[in-house]
Amino acid sequence: MPRLGDGRPSPVAVFTAGLRKSYGDRTVLDGIDLAVPAGSVFALLGPNGAGKTTAVKILSTLVTADAGELRVGGHDLAADPQAVRAAIGVTGQFSAVDGLITGEENMLLMADLHHLPRSQGRRTAAGLLERFDLVEAAKKPASTYSGGMKRRLDIAMTLVGSPRIIFLDEPTTGLDPRSRHTVWGIIRELVSDGVTVFLTTQYLEEADELADRIAVLNDGRIAAEGTADELKRIVPGGHVRLRFTDPAAYRSAAVALREATRDDEALALRIPSGGSQRELRSVLDRLDPAGIEADELTVHTPDLDDVFFALTGPADVTDQPKENVR
Which of 37, 130, 169, 310 could make a disulfide contact with 10, Cβ separation 3.0–4.6 Å? Predict the structure, then answer.
C-alpha cells in the first residue's frame, strides 16, 4: 500500500473491487480491482473500446455498475452517489464548453450550477481564468477559442466546485503538442495541491510522463498494473550495447562477455540487461581486469509502447476513432 512521508498508509481516493459492467451479451468490465492513492495521478490505458470511458462514467455516477464494491472519496458509490458527485470533477473526451457564450459566462454558469453565491462565483471564476491564462479571452465567445484554450477552459470549469478528485477522460485528444504540454503542466499543478487525478489516455507518452501508477485494461480486465518502470520490466528486450573502434579490444570483450550477441561488422556487443546500475557495473567490472574499454556504451530499455503492444496486441492506438463503448 502506498505510504505517506511519515510511514502511515496513504488514503485511497478511488477504490474498486470486482467492478463489472455488461451491455447485452457483451462484457465491458469483467472484475476490475483498483486502489488509487489520494494526491496521485493514476492512468488507465487500453485499446479503443476497452471500456476506459465506461469505467470513468461508472466512477463518476453517470452509469450504474452491474456488480462490485466501489468507493470514491471515501463514499460508497451505490449508497451515497450525491456525496461522490460533490467530491469529484469530470472532464470528458468532448468539451462541455458552450461555444455560444463567453469563457467568463461559461465559468459563471458552472458557478451557478454549484450554487455558489454570486460574489463568490465571480471571485472563483476570475481566479481560475487567471490561473489558466484565459483573462484576455474571457470576454470572447468560446467558439473563437483554439483547441488548447477550450480544453483549459473545460478543466477550469471542472475546478469551480473545488473537487479533490478529478476524472480526465482523454483530456488531450486532438490537441497539438504545445497545448498537450500545457495541459500536462496543469495536471501537475493540481496534484501538487493534493488533488487526485484519474486519467484515461490514448497517448502512452502522456501516461509515462504524468502517472504515478498505470493500469492496462484489455478485454475487460486489468492486464497489468504498476509504475511505468515496473511495467517496462514486464517486457523482455532490455540490453546494454557496447561498441568498439579497435577490433582487438572488441574481440577481447567478446571473450570476456561470452553471453553477448556479436555484431562483427559494427564491432558491437549486445548483453541482455534490465538497465539497472548494478547490472551495468557488473558488465564493466568484467572488462576492467583485462583493461578493455568500450568507445560507446548505451542502455536500451523497453518503453510503454512495447508494454502496451505486448499486453494488448499490435493495434494502432493513436489513429483509431475514439472509444465508442458507453
Answer: 37
Q: What grid cell was written down for 37? A: 492513492
- pLDDT under 50 in the chain at which residues? 1-6, 315-326
DSSP-derived 3-state class of residue 295: coil
Tens digit of pLDDT for each residue in 294-319? 999 988 777 888 888 888 875 444 33
Please state, in angstroms and rounded to a whole number, the distance separating the CA atoms of residues 28 and 25: 10
**Cα–Cα distance, 242 to 293 (Å, whole number):** 9
All three cell numbers of 195, joined, read 488533488
Q: Whose CA is closest to 187, among 43, 307, 74, 34?
A: 43
Q: pLDDT, tens digit, for every residue of 182-205?
A: 889 999 999 999 999 999 988 888
The dihedral through the CA atoms of 276, 277, 280, 286 has a sign that is: negative
Task: Please work out, in degrees rounded to the nearest 5, the angle formed at the alpha carbon of residue 247 by the alpha carbons of 245 and 251.
Answer: 125
Strands of the chain (E only): list them: 12-23, 26-37, 41-45, 67-72, 75-76, 88-91, 165-169, 196-200, 213-218, 221-226, 239-243, 261-263, 268-272, 296-300
Residue ranges per structural domain of the chain: 12-97+145-232, 239-301
Q: Which helix (H) or strand (E) holds 164?
A: none
12-97+145-232 carries CATH number 3.40.50.300: yes
Contact 53, 169 (CB under 8 A): yes
